[in-house]
Design a protein that fits this description.
Length: about 425
């Protein structure tokens, strides 16, 4: 795909698809609950479709129609051994969450993924689960994973790596485990799993103290389905928000966007940089905060963000780096270690591609420094993405200012946002 520069802004209402994290959980949790669950506005992207197929392959009846699915759950112990290995494509969320769930089943499974997923670290999930008596065998710390279903033992965990995927994997394992599992979270990670488990009747108790969160969950309690309306995805919205901020003459509206405080750092960060962003109509849907968002072109200031912000917006650094490249002053983003183990080494690719675009930037350990300029001289107009959807979308937005930029392997965008290109073109973008 080639992203061309535009002159008349990004204008209108952006239709953002359903939230990816909540969509995965909206398949996994109802599949092991009792009753019929109607899920509206589910994201139909490659990642989520891999989770959907996995549960169909494990015998769950799921009827699909357009943006809605119906899941006929039959309880905690109703999953069947799949005939084949479960292939999860690019989806780290599917891999970590399913590992937890499958560790406590009565059958064995093998999980595989694409090249990118096969390079990502899996010991971060197998190690805590193996402490619960799980039998998970990685291939030198990565996929494929062989999971021998076993009776697990409830344990206490102190989460060292701030990861909702690890936390959620442990929580899903604990559902089929006798006794109380205790997780202490020292840094904030997204809490969609806890919210949904609670509303499905799990015996889960959450205590927030000043600088940590304690999650207690008692296993072997059946869950009961409720219908779910998936709100729209803030991470996907971020590409459109930044496109509107950095392009003059823009006025954009986004509706029904998930504004969960455990992952809305991008809004806080952009506002701190001086972005004209107005949130309105704030409300709750299935216990998740949602709101509408209005954005206008803005003169951004550079900003320094510490590691505590990384916990609230880890997926948004590629697009935040693009925003910072057009600010009036330099920015420093600190504590980006986890960016190295996402769908690609995102810190490496942000740096490489910004430098190719002529941006003066460097890293120092896990900190990123960006010094913006008014006149970029592109060194190389081919963007390397390593099949990472968020790198592809972020640099497509970069192209709206300094394009044409050729985005390599842009089909990766289908992992989270299949309508991205048509939607931005509808609002004034020129992606061909
Ligand atoms: C996700 C958690 C985050 C995030 C990912 C989705 C989830 O990963 O980067 O895109 O749905 O739980 P980590 O929890 O590993 O940081």
């Amino acid at each position: 795909m080639i992203s061309h520069s535009i002159s008349s802004g990004i204008n209108g209402e952006a239709i953002i698809p359903g939230d990816k994290s909540i969509s995965h959980r909206s398949i996994i949790i109802p599949s092991i609950s009792n009753g019929i669950c109607e899920v509206n506005n589910i994201l139909k992207s490659d990642d989520v479709l891999h989770t959907l197929k996995a549960f169909k392959d494990m015998g769950v009846k799921i009827i699909e129609s357009n943006k809605k699915i119906m899941i006929f759950g039959k309880g905690l112990n109703s999953l069947k051994k799949p005939k084949n290995e479960i292939y999860l494509g690019n989806s780290g969320t599917s891999a970590r969450l399913l590992t937890g769930l499958l560790a406590a089943q009565k059958f064995d499974t093998v999980l595989t993924g694409d090249n990118s997923l096969s390079r990502r670290p899996m010991e971060r999930i197998s190690e805590p689960l193996n402490r619960m008596n799980a039998k998970i065998f990685t291939s030198n710390g990565t996929m494929p994973l062989k999971i021998i279903g076993n009776d697990l033992i409830a344990k206490k965990f102190d989460l060292k790596i701030p990861s909702a995927q690890i936390k959620s994997g442990i929580l899903l394992a604990s559902l089929n485990t006798k006794g109380e599992t205790l997780i202490t979270e020292n840094k904030v990670t997204r809490n969609h799993t806890e919210i949904m488990l609670k509303s499905f009747g799990a015996h889960i108790n959450i205590q927030n103290t000043e600088n940590r969160k304690l999650i207690k969950i008692t296993g072997e309690k059946e869950l009961f389905s409720k219908n779910i309306d998936v709100p729209n995805d803030l991470s996907s919205s971020a590409f459109f928000i930044v496109a509107a901020l950095i392009n003059k003459k823009s006025h954009l509206v986004l509706k029904n966007i998930n504004n969960n405080p455990t992952r809305n750092g991008i809004i806080l960060a952009l506002k701190k940089m001086g972005a004209k962003i107005i949130l309105s109509n704030e409300r709750f849907s299935n216990n998740e905060k949602v709101c509408d968002i209005e954005v206008r072109s803005s003169e951004l200031n550079g900003c320094e963000f510490g590691p505590e912000m990384a916990d609230l917006m880890i997926d948004e650094y590629p697009i935040l780096a693009v925003a910072a490249s057009f600010a009036k002053s330099p920015s420093i983003f600190r504590g980006l270690k986890e960016l190295r183990v996402k769908e690609s080494d995102r810190l490496k690719l942000i740096l490489l591609n910004l430098q190719n675009c002529g941006v003066d930037c460097h890293t120092n350990n896990d900190d990123l420094y960006i010094s913006p300029s008014k006149n970029y001289k592109i060194n190389k107009n081919i963007i390397q993405t390593d099949f990472d959807h968020r790198i592809a979308m972020a640099f497509a937005i970069m192209g709206t200012k300094i394009g044409p930029l050729k985005i390599k392997d842009s089909e990766s965008i289908n992992t989270s946002f299949p309508s991205f290109i048509t939607e931005i073109n509808k609002l004034g973008g020129k992606f061909i």
